[in-house]
Structure prediction request, 86 residues.
Amino acid sequence: MRSGNEPVTARSPLRLRFWLSLWGLIWAAAGTALFSLADRPGWAAACGAVVLLAAVDLAVIIHHIHQGPHYQPGPDVPPYEPPGSR
Prediction:
């Protein structure tokens, strides 16, 4: 049943986003280094751009995680108000 306040009580999988962003950052950095060594400046620049995007995403994720349970509720916080509480 929908309560109508889903945008207010929506949950974001920040820890999953953190690990996926970190994984992408590592692979893009490795790609930048390897393409630079292989004398492929276009591919190295593309991987470098992905490194910057992943780093910014990682910074935003860490900021949201540090803001506390309002933005990352635990499993004991229900995702919506029960229908009978109106």
